[in-house]
Amino acid sequence: PVLVVDFGAQYAQLIARRVREAGVYSEIVPHSTPVADMLAKGPAAIILSGGPSSVYEDGAPTIDASLFDAGVPVLGICYGFQTMAQALGGAVGRTGTREYGRTPAAVDASSCLFAGTPLEQSVWMSHGDAVQAAPEGFAVTASTAQTPVAAFEDRSRRLFGLQWHPEVLHSEHGQKALENFLHVGAGIPATWTAGSIIDEQVEAIRAQVGDAHVICGLSGGVDSSVAAALVHRAVGDQLTCIFVDHGLLRAGEREQVENDYAQGMGIRVITVDESERFLGALAGVTEPEAKRKIIGREFIRSFEAAQRRVIEEVGAAGGEIRFLVQGTLYPDVVESGGGEGTANIKSHHNVGGLPEDLDFELIEPLRALFKDEVRAIGRELGVPERIVARQPFPGPGLGIRVIGEVTRENLEVLRAADAIAREELSAAGLDGEIWQCPVVLLADVRSVGVQGDGRTYGHPVVLRPVSSEDAMTADWMRLPYDVLARISTRITNTVPEVTRVVLDVTSKPPATIEWE
Ligand code: XMP
Fold first, then answer.
1. Measuring CA to CA, which residue among 494, 487, 493, 498 is closest to residue 410?
2. Hey, what CATH topology would domain 2-185 get?
3. Is 225 annotated as a binding residue?
4. Which of 96, 168, 467, 488 is 20 to 30 A removed from 415 (C-alpha atoms)?
């Protein structure tokens, strides 16, 4: 793999994705990983990410200089560039002014990083410190008005550095610079493709499962659908999907899932109605992490109960089912603290919320993948476009979109409002542009309204339309006013419990996409 060393502030995920877009597999490791452990992974190259620290602050993360003697190609970016300069004997200092945003840079045509790009290009800067002198043996290969040493390299040792962020789209030729580093500087071929991922996973799944029977929890979303299709490709009829109706679904969802799989994909699906179990366990619970833990636990309990049905109806070999497929993605793993040293922001139901007495061995064929990669392999596997292109819907469903207690009544109200919002957004042709648009019921908040002739005292719903590339960061979507107006009018006219429709205009960070 190409290792992306994470110096914080979530730059590393974006870099890892860009590397994969260049057809090269990448993994993120925390900066605290010892160099020997990094090298033990046999990296084809190493990229040092940006980060929020100053190299000369006490306790600032550093990189052991032995990394640069290992013969592995290295690219340092922003903070990674500075810490690299420092480790190799160059000088880093405060500039006194911050260079931030789009900045014109002059690049050196002789550097392989800039092959095929113009000598003057716009790059994305975000720094207050700067490399003042390149280490011995390094040539300076780019500069800006304020930063004379904006890139450097030692071609013979295959060590490179960039002060700007090639991973962000605002750096005009950033992706090209990354590709040049990988393919030319480090000599790594572009072999990470949807087809190669499928082949590799199919083989791994067959080896793990043998002739055992496998069940898959299907949510109807992209991740579990593609995971199921992949496992189906690997073991065919040994797979049975279980669709748990937890009572927290959106309108029409159950029927859609049942039709799409059985008819569309030829995969066996058994639906179990467990809404009593879930709503019973959620009664009186309002704290988001508690809800997530309960839902995660009840999911597993539901599977355990469904096992018996599968064994009865399908007749699993050996009379037991040991394997459970989950559509866990790489960002879920990182955000749930699975990559060491990262904060636990939310317990995603399919990672952090698993009970300890779990009775299944997990098959998680998407655990190393980002969402766009999952969509690509879904298409390659022939998963219908209406499933592959679906907007994400969280496993805990509407349970984390009712703020306050999750009751049947609250769910009915939210379901009705959500169906209207989805209908209007689709009718306006906005599905492709929106990452997702949660509709959130503030069941804890009451608000006075006047509906018909009388005073009402109902609840607000929040529209949370966001644009995003990977759900790690997101911006609120500037929806057309007339679409917002139609949604608001229809909701308040047809859902009597809702007295107000409000718009969430917060980005992520500091907010998250879901409210809980
Ligand atoms: P947040 O709210 O953390 O959400 O910004 C990021 C993305 O993840 C989805 N999400 C989940 N998906 N299980 C899932 O499968 C979960 O527990 C879960 N929580 C949030 C959310 O809809 C968004 O796309």
1. 498
2. Rossmann fold (3.40.50)
3. yes
4. 467
